[in-house]
């Protein structure tokens, strides 16, 4: 029997964007006529894949209430936390009573505005029958070196190393419990790592290379280029 597939999106957007060195958090910088976060949320909302999108926003954030999209009926605002994982957990808690324990949650960085509907649907289609779930990831085209100081100590087999992107797709209850049980653990830099620490084996599916994270100043021009290529 076909179970009804319910997916929710969670967007951590409470970072300060230190590496961007801008006058405001990077999610509010202009990109192709909108702010970065407006692109990200429009793409999630426009995919038609989600019941609601829960966004974690810093409590001191003066920019968010100014955006029309903060009042979108399918957008829920939750308070951000100290680390990314705290923000994600807070957004998950804002879905308590709405999301079922076995519903899927796709966690996606606000700072990744080039996400395509194609990648969202690819991920959901390939992971919806999993017991655990997993993440979009990118293979490396370059040869990879293990380095000590500036000395190469080994060449790493490329087929075993992948770059973790978002969305990261997990069951609502399992992800909430994993983030609660690993709270404060500095090794938890993404959702998958929280599940890995508890012994689960998340999967990867290869995503598109244009799903970049805006991190440093040059990334805005690159994101604009990718957006032009996508239309
Ligand atoms: N994030 C969050 N809460 C935090 C820290 C980060 O919600 N306490 C979010 C960011 O807003 C971003 C995503 O997590 O959308 C990925 O984090 P990152 O790229 O590291 O963003 P920042 O932490 O803002 O940037 P930086 O590390 O350069 O300060
Ligand atoms: Mg950060």
Can you walk me through this structure?
- The chain has helices at residues 36-46, 84-93, 117-127, 172-181, 191-197, 219-230, and strands spanning 7-12, 30-31, 34-35, 53-57, 75-79, 104-107, 133-139, 144-148, 151-156, 162-171, 203-206.
- It has 231 residues and is α/β, with parallel strands linked by helices.
- The protein has one domain (7-230): Spore Coat Polysaccharide Biosynthesis Protein SpsA, Chain A.
- The strands form three sheets. A seven-stranded mixed β-sheet has the order 5-4-1-6-10-7-11, sandwiched between helices. It has a two-stranded antiparallel ribbon with strand order 2-3.
- Helix 2 crosses helix 4 (172-181).
- The protein is globular and about 55 Å long.
Task: Give a quick summary of the entry.
This is 2-C-methyl-D-erythritol 4-phosphate cytidylyltransferase. The protein has one domain (7-230): Spore Coat Polysaccharide Biosynthesis Protein SpsA, Chain A, CATH 3.90.550.10.
